[in-house]
Amino acid sequence: MKSVVLTKQDSPLKIEDRDSLEPSEGQVIVSLKASALNRRDYWITQGLYPGIQYPAVLGSDGAGVVSRIGANVDESMIGLDVLINPGLNWGNNQSYQSSDFQILGMPGLGTLASEVLVPAENVCPKPEHLSWSEAAALPLAGLTAFRALMKQGLAKTGDTVLITGIGGGVATFAMTFALAIGMKVLVTSSSDEKLSKARSLGAAAGYNYGTDDWGKQLKSEHGMPNLIVDGAGGAGYGVLLNLASPGGTIVSYGSTAGAPGKVDLFKVFWKQLRLIGSTMGSANDFDEMLDLVSRHNLRPVIDCQFEMENITDAFEQMAESRQFGKIVVNQPV
Ligand SMILES: NC(=O)c1ccc[n+]([C@@H]2O[C@H](COP(=O)([O-])OP(=O)(O)OC[C@H]3O[C@@H](n4cnc5c(N)ncnc54)[C@H](OP(=O)(O)O)[C@@H]3O)[C@@H](O)[C@H]2O)c1
Asked: How far apart are CA 130 and CA 112, in angstroms?
């Protein structure tokens, strides 16, 4: 099998031939048609992730065809077109993941390869309306956005949601899902071009978080949103506390911009805010996300696509946060 291998921190990614994988009981091999990047993959290349083990085959997102199965796996799975739920061992509690929870692609071998080994329960039929690239773009960011918005954020039709950093993979899915269920969507970005792309996809308004008074402007034009979905944290988190409506919810699924600056607890208790975290999602959440995608014929926003041999260019695109939506890596046909 061909794999993109990271041998140590900051070293160039190499494409290597490795031994084929063998499925054990309950496992399947998916021959991948496409994979997609997440910020996590980039952070691992920078050594900024807990428990990194080398050599590593990165990648959590993938879609392909089940080519081989282990014992006690239904033979009808062979030849199925699938996408992969990258959350391994979530456990039975819908509120949070078990202590055995892992994400495909670290410490185990990931999807930036021609094939990947996963538990049979982690593959789901590919929604028919999606291409291979679209299917590969969906799993990790789609699942994270779905849980953050719908489960932790209790999103409701007709409500207003503010989604920060709309260029991000998770953020674009949150926007897609929120629009599909009939929410009013406001967004932020560092890029006016990305803001205008978001408006063209249905966002009601966009604000550049690099400007001083974007929060005031948003409030005067659209009032205070009752739901905020944030993957940035950082100094801008204080603005979100100002902006959330009384009784509102701020869901945090990431901290790309680092630790929040000063958190004004007075605002939290006086406005009766719900501040809640969200990480990926359960198998149930994954099924519900796929159901939403299929019912509304939703398609991931793909920024750009690379062939596996150009993997370094794909990581550069992410390093500079140039993307609007997902970065896909296709396998040779
Ligand atoms: N909890 C989980 O399960 C989970 C799952 C996936 C990702 N994450 C985390 O969520 C974050 C986003 O992940 P991703 O894969 O969507 O990454 P991504 O596609 O690389 O998106 C990152 C985006 O963050 C935005 N950003 C950067 N600084 C910002 C700031 N100060 N304020 C607002 N937005 C800012 C930028 O948006 P603009 O380009 O529009 O400025 C950038 O495009 C990462 O921290 C990641 O580790 C967590």
From this structure: 20
Dihedrals φ, ψ of 31, to 5°?
-80, 115
Spell out the residues 6+ positions from residue 282 whose beta carbon is closer than 8 angstroms to its own. Answer: 87, 90, 94, 97, 147
The pLDDT tens digits for 169-227 are: 999 999 999 999 999 999 999 999 999 999 999 999 999 999 999 999 999 999 999 99
pLDDT tier for residue 79 given thresholds of 50, 70 and 90: very high
State whether 44 and 115 are in the same domain. yes
Give me the residue label for tokens 């994954």: 286
- Identify any residues that bridge with 187 across adjacent strands, giving them in sequence order: 163, 206
Task: Measure the CA–CA gap between 308 and 50, rounded to whole angstroms.
Answer: 26
The whole-number average pLDDT for the span 45-67 is 95
Tell me: do 55 and 17 sit in the same domain.
yes
| Mean pLDDT, residues 220-236 | 97
**Same domain for 162 and 133:** no
Averaged pLDDT of the chain: 96
Residue-level pLDDT at 105: 97
Centre of ligand 1 to C-alpha 171, Å, is 7
Assess whether 156 and 206 both reside in one domain.
yes
Question: How much is the pLDDT for 332?
Answer: 80
Residue 205 CA to ligand 1 centre (angstroms): 19
Residue 145 CA, ligand 1 centroid: distance in Å: 11
Q: What pLDDT does 185 receive?
A: 98
Asked whether 35 and 136 are in contact (CB, 8 A), the reply is yes
CA neighbor of 151 nearest in space, from 202, 93, 86: 93
Strand (E) or helix (H) holding 28: strand 27-36
What is the extent of the structural domain holding 269?
Answer: 143-277
CB of residue 331 inside a 6 A radius of ligand 1: no
pLDDT of amino acid 321: 84
CATH code of residue 128: 3.90.180.10
Reference 174, options 238, 101, 252; nearest CA is 252
Asked if residue 236 is part of any domain, the answer here is yes
159, 123: one domain: no
Looking at the structure, tell me whether residues 171 and 251 fall in a common domain: yes
Is there a single domain that holds both residue 91 and residue 116? yes
